[in-house]
Amino acid sequence: MEKSLDKIRVAFFDTKDYEKDFFLKTASAAEFVDYGFSFDFYKDNLTLTTLPLAANHEAVCIYINDRIDDKMVQTLYDSGVRLLALRSAGTSNVNLKAAQGKIKVVYLPEYQAHSVAEFSVALLQTFNRKIQKTFVPECEDNIFFGNILGSELFEKRVGIVGAGRIGKIAAQIFKGYGAEVYLNDPVQDLDFAKSNGMTYANTEEIFRTCDYVALYCPLVPETRNIINNHSISLMKKSAVIVSIGRSALIDYQALHSALSAGRIRGAAIEAFEEDSIFEEDFEQNSEDEKNFSSLVQLPNVLMTKHQAVLTSESLKFAAKTTLKNILEYFQASGK
User: Fold this and answer.
1) Burial code of 233-257, b = ≥16 C-beta within 10 A, e = fewer?
2) Is 155 left (phi over 0), alpha (psi -120 to 50) or beta?
């Protein structure tokens, strides 16, 4: 990269202390040290109230909780911001139509695949072996061991819905447990399946036959509410759903009803903070929020909050990729 600006001022919103450290360290690395980055970190989300803090910055960097609608886009543009950099994968929290022709939007192409895949299996196994019920000092000395009776993955059927990069890594981990793995994806990698002793199957077959249904698919119209009353009705009573994808992949009313009635055994869910309670027009859906929140109270549900990407490797990747995205935009635009 050739240097094109004396200083690139970036305002970070919804910033955690650990993120700040990674961005500062990355900016001082040999790859970036010659560029004039100037960072301002704000712990608050980017809202109309905090938006004045973005003034006098060429770029604004946001996370998944920052909702950028058409009014926010126009106000950012009027304040001189020309680049919106997301340090997250996807742009579901940004009104891209409103941004077109005004503010360039860049984002991570993906999360660190191994971080997410490893976490998803750990999440499932924590639920599957009821590890969370025996944490010290939360557990009682006289715990009834019948309440922590678990199940092996060995020789069980695991269905991977969304066998992209993350799904494939997870599939290999499940295979390492001795599980029988079935893959589903619009693009089939037959060489991968053959070399790993796996088989492609349609979603109906996975729902009907698998002991564990693992969601790694992106949120597109075809996958929205892929877990619904019908798909759940096909599953074994002993089935467990593990979801590491967007929350809108699941109809939470249907899932809550099934879990409450014992129709399936359980669910382990990595919940994105912005998911489920917002539709594409960014208006809050109170019914979705109610169903989503009530799941946490069920004894056969384990839910974490956007934890899968919290590894040092993932944060290094996010910082480096975000800074590259920012530099490339300003170098290409000459602004």
Assistant:
1) eebbeebbbbbbbbbbbbbbbbbbe
2) left
- Bridge partners (DSSP) of residue 269 are 243, 303
Catalytic residue, candidates 87, 246, 256, 265: 246
What is the percent of the chain where pLDDT is above 70? Answer: 88
Q: Clarify whether 180 is annotated catalytic.
A: no
Classified as helix, coil or strand, 320 is helix
Mean pLDDT of the region 62-77: 93
User: Which residues make Cβ contacts (< 8 Å) with residue 135, sequence separation at least 6?
Assistant: none
Task: Measure the CA–CA gap between 204 and 216, rounded to whole angstroms.
Answer: 16
Respond yes or no: is residue 246 known to be catalytic. yes
- Taking the model in full, what pTM does it have? 0.83
Please say if 306 is a catalytic residue.
yes
Q: What is the pLDDT of residues 133-174, one digit of tens each?
A: 776 555 555 555 557 777 899 999 999 999 999 999 999 999
